[in-house]
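Researcher: Let's do a round of design. I'm pasting the structure tokens now; please hold your answer until I've finished.
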């Protein structure tokens, strides 16, 4: 989505639940000498910066962009390993990455690249807070945002539009074979509209190389960046691959590189279970809570609400149908946003009372868009798909994942269909591993919330240890927050690290 801010609602890996953005004159960046990438592709990293208010870029934004914001494109290879392309396409196929630059307010010392999450979140024009420490950072650093390949305003863009019949929402009692047919139709649409060659070069491996191309185009000898959620996977792999090109990396909401897709999702669902229990205790302290503060009883009551709604959907005044699946999607979304737990209380209270208010309808629609974006699933599949996997094993894993959170397993006898990545025809390039930090790599800074359900706290612990780096902990719920005025205690530490990464830090806890 254009003008997408760095948001807390970043759902790494929950693709199965559909839960899941100076100068008025044109300014041209210097032309740099041709350099060789890690795969010996001759390139000329150059960004032609222009005012984002020029006609070429106005469609990137929902609102009028800042006067000093610059926009541009960077050409990068479609495939960094040219042998993977047909001979006729080698050294010719290119991807255009969309970038923005917000200039430093005083004397520039460098560029800070913001790496968005998702995968599939737009990253142009990232939003930063206004506290004194962030303003200090902005004095000497250009802020660089970008849409990853396949995303937002980058070209080509992932497209998987399906016809109206295929867009119909599946219900839990639908036929498994029919559900999987619809998923295969969706995959076919992705291949036809985006192109098989693009889809095979759309994952994290390419994103890491793209990040280094951005660094070169910015004429930065070493990378300074802040990464969020899935973006921490890109940043961590960059640190492994380009240790001598790394200056300072902040990783907020950490992905564990050692986890395969099944393990990551299973642990994530278990973390959401803990998040639901914490919400139940919060809910009990409010005036109109529909569930108990006792965790096991709260789960039973929530499941009863969903089962009743499954059999008797509510119809709002505007005609919108409120179903159990939609409520479940909304619950997952709001559990991550602890500042909106009051909305979750309201939703469960209205459903318990059988009230289909307009407020409830608006809330459900906010997290259940009819225009489902397949970008997250496509990039995930480019990483994790294994076409030769045993189908029976995959079906068993789907059952385990969907049961792990407990509160979501409201129809215990239901069987879950295979998902997009189970049926994806191209092998993913992920290689789960415990990272090994090069002696040339400076210390990184990992940031985590103790009760983050999306990227569990343990991820940050093991990754900080593997990289022999610093860890800052926030004793709270939620997912990703640095440089957004959420916690001045942590933002101050983050900014000091970004400005002076050579200084020795101590692990820090902020309440």
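Researcher: That's everything. Go ahead.
Model: Designed sequence:
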């Amino acid at each position: 989505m254009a003008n997408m801010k760095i948001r807390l609602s970043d759902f790494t890996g929950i693709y199965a639940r559909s839960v899941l953005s100076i100068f008025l004159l044109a300014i041209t960046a210097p032309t740099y000498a041709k350099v060789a990438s890690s795969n010996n592709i001759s390139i000329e990293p150059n960004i032609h910066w222009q005012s984002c208010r020029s006609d070429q870029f106005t469609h990137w934004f929902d609102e009028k962009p800042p006067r000093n914001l610059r926009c541009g494109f960077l050409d990068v290879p479609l495939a960094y390993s040219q042998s993977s392309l047909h001979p006729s396409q080698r050294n010719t196929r290119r991807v255009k990455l969309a970038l923005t630059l917000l200039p430093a307010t005083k004397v520039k010392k460098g560029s800070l690249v913001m790496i968005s999450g998702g995968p599939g979140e737009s990253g142009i024009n990232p939003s930063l807070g206004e506290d004194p420490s962030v303003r200090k950072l902005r004095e000497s650093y250009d802020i660089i945002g970008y849409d990853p390949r396949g995303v937002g305003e980058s070209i080509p863009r992932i497209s998987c539009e399906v016809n109206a019949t295929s867009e119909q929402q599946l219900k839990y009692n639908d036929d498994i074979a029919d559900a999987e047919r619809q998923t295969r139709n969706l995959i076919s649409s992705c291949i036809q509209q985006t192109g098989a060659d693009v889809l095979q070069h759309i994952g994290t491996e390419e994103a890491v190389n793209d990040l280094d191309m951005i660094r070169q185009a910015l004429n930065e000898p070493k990378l300074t960046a802040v990464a969020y959620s899935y973006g921490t996977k890109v940043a961590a792999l960059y640190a492994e691959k380009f240790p001598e090109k790394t200056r300072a990396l902040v990783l907020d909401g950490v992905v564990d590189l050692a986890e395969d897709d099944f393990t990551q999702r299973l642990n994530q669902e278990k973390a959401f279970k803990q998040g639901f229990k914490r919400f139940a205790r919060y809910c009990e302290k409010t005036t109109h809570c529909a569930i108990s503060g006792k965790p096991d009883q709260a789960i039973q009551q929530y499941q009863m609400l969903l089962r009743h709604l499954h059999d008797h959907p509510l119809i709002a005044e505007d005609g919108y149908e409120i179903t159990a699946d939609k409520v479940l999607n909304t619950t997952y979304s709001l559990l991550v946003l602890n500042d909106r737990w009051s909305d979750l209380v309201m939703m469960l209270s209205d459903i318990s009372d059988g009230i289909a208010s307009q407020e409830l309808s608006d809330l459900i629609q906010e997290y259940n868009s009819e225009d489902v974006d397949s970008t997250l699933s496509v990039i995930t599949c480019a990483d994790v798909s294994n076409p030769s996997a045993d189908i029976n094993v995959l079906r068993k894993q789907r059952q385990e994942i969907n049961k792990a959170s407990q509160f979501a397993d409201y129809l215990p006898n239901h069987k879950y269909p295979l998902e997009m990545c189970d049926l994806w025809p191209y092998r993913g390039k992920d290689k789960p591993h415990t990272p090994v930090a090069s002696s040339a790599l400076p210390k990184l800074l990992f940031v985590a919330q103790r009760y983050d359900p999306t990227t569990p706290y343990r991820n940050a612990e093991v990754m900080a240890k593997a990289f022999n780096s610093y860890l800052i902990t926030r004793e709270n719920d939620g997912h990703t927050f640095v440089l957004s005025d959420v916690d001045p205690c942590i933002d101050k530490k983050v900014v000091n690290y970004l400005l002076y990464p050579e200084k020795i830090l101590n692990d820090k806890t902020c309440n």
